[in-house]
Prior knowledge:
- The chain is of the alpha/beta class.
- The protein has one domain (4-69).
- The protein is 28% helix and 18% strand.
- The chain has 3 helices and 4 strands, in the order βαβαβαβ.
- Strands 1-2-3-4 form a 4-stranded parallel sheet, with helices on one face.
- Strand 1 (4-5), helix 1 (9-12) and strand 2 form a beta-alpha-beta unit.
Amino acid sequence: MPVLYTGGPRELVSGAYGIVGISSIIVNVGKVREMYRTVRELSPQSVIIVGGHVAAIPGLKLILDADHILRGERGHCLP
């Protein structure tokens, strides 16, 4: 089972995180994009999942290439 990452950027370098989840409100989409870029740079093997209110932005996939964008109530979507 993958480890769920909840720490800071320095911890990503270890490569121990299989999944990184990013959740935010819509007004912080710029911060989400920056977090996404940081995760991709420091832990390219991690699966990135974006959720929360920011996931409702039309065309979000064009802004950032997250592995999964979860819209709506998806609390039980991962194995």
